[in-house]
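Example 5.3 — gibberellin 2beta-dioxygenase
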Amino acid sequence: MMAMRAASDPPLLDQYGKLLRRHEENQVSQCNDHLCEIIGECELPLIDLSGLRNCNGDERRACVAAIVRASSEWGFFQVVNHGINPEFLGEMRREQMKVFQTPFERKASCGLLNNSYRWGNPTATSLKHFFWSEAFHIPLTKISDDACYGEFSTLREVLEKLTAEMSKLAQLLAGVLTENLGQSNGILQKICTENTNFLRLNHYPKCPISQEICGIMPHTDSDFLTIVYQDQVGGLQLLKDSKWVAVKPNRDALIVNIGDLFQVWSNNQYKSVEHKVMTNGRVERYSIAYLLCPSYDSLIESYKEPSIYKKFTFGEYRKQVQADVQKIGHKVGLPRVLL
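Solution (predicted structure tokens):
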């Protein structure tokens, strides 16, 4: 039943052998009640960002209103005319594929991209905490470091250009959302800098086990916002009205989703929505995510009173998230900071 893995794949089958055999013997779905129910495919709100750069005040206001509405009702939206050349994004994808096609042993041991390679979840004790993917989670401070690239010298140039473009876009969108709350559009520029942000390269290999296995487990993002460039394979699902909906890929759009910190900052006006990525038995999937994060000592608090949340630093929040994952196998997140 299990297909032979290619040399470039992480050793997911090897490391999770016991869990997978137990799954095959029991033939029991690993989904949990309503969390497995899919109500169909959706198209996320599509927003043309040319309106933000338009001198026409009405068009800009309409674009801002669309961003705010999507952030409040969906927590996710798509953007076109975002300023990043599609041909360049295609070049970035080709460089990304070269890296992931490198044999696992080399990816895991050669120190590539700040030694940030991650694969699966080697400590998983049940299929609930099993995820079928590999990634490089890179601090932006290391993007220009020659020592991070080794034989992949052509990767540095495209990553430098990508992070510069993604940074501009992230700050543009964050500015819109903070201005809507009556705050300065530069407030997040002071606490979210190159020293605090991350780029994540994701690869979801073909999964020969079951389409019910998650590439990434259900979670919310712990940042202010995330910008994602994905391929056309699909697999992204989000929780909408307590049901999982599959997101239809859009070749021309980038996906933006609100993180936990913006939900706190906006006192629940903007929504950080639970989402996951499902595996595919026939084709592999790639994505690139830019994460807008503050410094660990940044104070996170709601913009108005009475606040729904306690005040906390980003470092305190991250520490609690990591402690929960280690103790119970999954993130608890915002319920930990509710008043």
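Remark. DSSP finds ten helices and 15 strands in the chain.
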